[in-house]
Amino acid sequence: MVDNSGRAVGVRDVAALAGVSRQTVSRVLNEHPDVADATRERVEKAMGELGYRMNNAARALGTRRSRTLGILASDALQFGPSRSIAAIEASARAAGYWVSAAFADADDAASVSAAVDHLVAQGVEGILVVAPHARTLRMLDTVSVGVPIVTLHSAGHDARGVGVDQVAGARLAVGALADAGHTRIAHLAGPADWLEAESRAEGFAAELAARGLESVLTVVGDWTARAGFEAAQALRDAGATAVFAANDQMALGLIGALHAAGIAVPGEISVVGFDDLPEAAYAWPRLTTVRQDFDELARRAVAAVIAADAAASAESIVPELVVRDSIAAPSV
C-alpha cells in the first residue's frame, strides 16, 4: 500500500494513526503477549485503514520467525501428492502459517539440493517433503537443512515420516475380494520406484499369504488409466477373477478395457482401487476402493513440523475401505 505521495505505508504511519509508538506497532505485528487488548485493536484498526501489509521477510529478520512453511515436492502430478499439497496449504493457513513451494527432480540430486536451498533462503520455519520416491529421501540425507523436516508419502520408510498405513489399506482391498469368494486374485501394481506402490504390493502379498492364497499375476503400471487399460489382456489371460489395482486411475482404465472387450465388471471380474478419487463414485460400476484421509495427513504433518517433532505424529493413519459396486462373487 502507498500513501498519496506514492510512498509505501510503513510502521511509522500506523503508529501515528493509532497514537502509539513504533515499538508498540512492532509488538502487535510480532504477536507479543504484553500488549493490551484495546491497544492491539487500535493498531489493527489503523493497519486496516491504511492498507498496511506486513513484510514477512522484514518480520523474519526482526523476530527470526517468518510464519512460513516450505513444501518440497518431487512429484506433484499424481492424485495423492497433489491432494496432499493442497491439504498442507489449508492446514498451514489454519495454523497461522503461509507456505512456499519448491519442486525438484527426484532423479537429480542437485535439483533437490537447490530446492532445499531456495526454501531455506525464504526463511521457512520447517519443510514438508512430499516425497513418494526413495531416492528423494536418500538425497535429503546428504543436504544440510537447519530446519525441521517432515515427510509425507514415504510409506513408513522414513523416521521423519507422517503417513497412511499403505500395507493395511492393501490388505483391506485384498480381504474384500477374498471375502467375496475370490481365490484367483491379481495385482495391478504401481511403479517400482514409488514407496507407496512397494508398500501396497507388500500388503497384497501379506493378505494373500494370511489366507493361504497365491497371486495369479502382478502387472506393473505407471499409475495412469492407460496402464490399467493396457494391462487388461494379460490379467484376463492369467485367469484372474479379481484385481486389486494400486490406484483408482489404473482401476478405472482396467474397467474401461474390460467393458470394451465385453467382460462384465463385477460379474466376471471384480476390481478394487486405492485412493478414492472423486470420479470413483461415478464410474460404471461405482468403484470399491481404499480411501486415504489426506486432510488428516496434512494436519498431522503441519503440526509435527511446527512442533519440530515428527515422532509426535508417528502413528500411521488407518485407511478406510469404501464399498461400492465393483465386487461380486466369482462367476465360476
Automatic annotation (TrEMBL):
* Keyword DNA-binding belongs to the record: yes
Against SMART domains, the record matches this protein to:
HTH_LACI
Q: Does the keyword Transferase apply?
A: no
Sequence ranges assigned to domain HTH lacI-type in this UniProt record: 9-63
Query: What are this entry's molecular-function GO terms?
Result: DNA binding
Keywords from the UniProt entry? DNA-binding, Transcription, Transcription regulation
Question: What InterPro entries does its record include?
Answer: HTH_LacI (IPR000843), LacI/GalR-like_sensor (IPR046335), Lambda_DNA-bd_dom_sf (IPR010982), Peripla_BP_I (IPR028082)
Q: Which PANTHER family does the annotation name?
A: HTH-TYPE TRANSCRIPTIONAL REGULATOR GALS, LACI-RELATED TRANSCRIPTIONAL REPRESSOR
Name of the protein described by the UniProt record:
LacI family DNA-binding transcriptional regulator
**Protein's organism:** Microbacterium galbinum
